[in-house]
Amino acid sequence: MTDSTTFKATVASLNPDEVRSGLNSGTTATKLQLIQTLAEAGDVGFPLLMEFLLERQSASPTPVEGKVYQVLSAANSSEVQDFLKTHFSQGLVSPASEAQVDYSHLQQLLAQQDFLEADKLTLQKLCELSSQAAVERKWIYFSEIKRFSTTDLHTIDLLWRVYSEGKFGYSVQRKLWLGVGKNWEKLWPKIGWRQNGNWTRYPQEFTWDLTAPVGHLPLSNQLRGVRVIEALFSHPAWSDSSS
User: Fold this and answer.
1) d(C-alpha 115, C-alpha 54), whole Å
2) Which residues lie closer than 8 Å to 221 by C-beta, 6 or more apart?
3) Secondary structure class of 132 (helix, strand, coil)
4) CB 223 within 8 Å of CB 229
5) Measured between alpha carbons, how far is 151 from 141 in angstroms, rounded to an integer?
6) In angstroms, rounded to a whole number, what is the distance separating the alpha carbons of residues 198 and 242?
7) Which of 58, 83, 79 is nearest to 69 (CA)?
8) Are the beta carbons of 115 and 209 closer than 8 angstroms?
9) Which residue, 77, 170, 191, 240, has fewest beta-carbon neighbours within 10 Å?
10) Which helix (H) or strand (E) holds 172?
11) ∠ at Cα 64 (24, 60), nearest 5°?
C-alpha cells in the first residue's frame, strides 16, 4: 500500500468512540492535533469531523470547532460541501451586531485564513462602528472607541479567535498586555510588532499565517498609535476579564 493508503487504514482502524472522546476532552492542542490527523485521512476522517461539528452546532464556537470548519471547508468532497451548505450556510459563527454591521465577509476571509485582507477589513468594520466620518477618513479616533458596542467588539474578537486556533484577537492581545504589566515596550516584541528595536514594517514584515507569534493580529497599532489600542483594551467589553 502507498503511504497515503496506509495512513488512512491506520485512521480507519481507530475506535470511533476513542476519536469522539478525543475530540470532546483533553487540551485544545491535543484536539487540534487530532483534527489535523483526521483531515489528512480525507474521506476516512471527514464523517467523524462532520458528526462532531453537528453535535456542537448549538454551542458557542471555540477554536476547535473553527479548525474543524476550516478543514471541512477546504475538503474536495461534494458530500462535505453539501453538509456545510445545509447546516452552516452562513458560516460557523452567527455574528451579532447592535450597530447593524455586516461581518459575513470578515468571517469568510478568516475562515480561509486570509489574514491580511481580514486585517484590512477589520479596520473598515471599526470605522463603521465609529461614524460615517470615520469610514470616509479610513481611521478612528481613540475617543470614538468608548462608544463601540460591546456586542460588536465581542463578535470581531470571536471571529479572530475561532479561525486562528485561538492565537489572534483583541482579548488575546489584552491578556498579553496585562501579563507584562501594561508595559507597551515589553508587549511590542512579544507579539512581533517590534523586532531588534525596530518597528515591524507593514505589510511585508508582518506574518500573515499561523506561524506568527500569539497576539500578532489584528494590527491595532496601524490604527493611529498607542492611544487607540489602549482604548480598545480598556473598553467595557472586557470588564469580565482581569484588569
Assistant:
1) 26
2) 193, 229
3) helix
4) yes
5) 20
6) 31
7) 83
8) yes
9) 240
10) helix 170-179
11) 85
What does the alpha-carbon distance between residue 211 and residue 207 come to, in Å, rounded to a whole number?
7
How does 126-160 read in b/e, with b if 16+ C-beta sit within 10 Å? bbbbbeeebbeeeebbbebbeebbeebbbbbbbbb
Beta bridge partners of 112: none
Cα–Cα distance for residue pair 177/188, rounded to 1 Å: 9
Alpha-carbon torsion (221, 226, 228, 230), positive or negative: positive
Question: Between these two residues, 5 and 106, which has the higher pLDDT value?
Answer: 106
Question: Mean pLDDT, the chain, as a whole number?
Answer: 91
| pLDDT reading at 224 higher than 70 | no
> Residue 179 is which amino acid?
G
* Complete domains list, the chain, with CATH: 3-87 (no CATH), 104-238 (1.10.10.1770)
Q: How many CA atoms lie within 13 A of 32 on its CB side?
A: 15
Q: What is residue 122's DSSP assignment? A: H
Query: Tens digit of pLDDT for each residue in 25-78?
Result: 889 999 999 999 999 989 989 999 999 999 999 899 999 999 999 999 999 999
Q: Which amino acid is at 124?
A: Q
* Angle, helix 226-233 to helix 170-179, in steps of 10 degrees: 100
- For residues 187 and 90, what is the distance between their CA atoms, to the nearest angstrom? 35
Direct distance between the N- and C-terminal alpha carbons of the chain, in angstroms, rounded to an integer: 57
> What CA–CA distance (Å, rounded) separates 87 from 49?
13
Task: Identify the three-state secondary structure at position 71.
Answer: helix
Residue ranges in 13-62 assigned as alpha helix (H): 16-24, 28-40, 46-55
Q: What is the pTM of this model?
A: 0.92
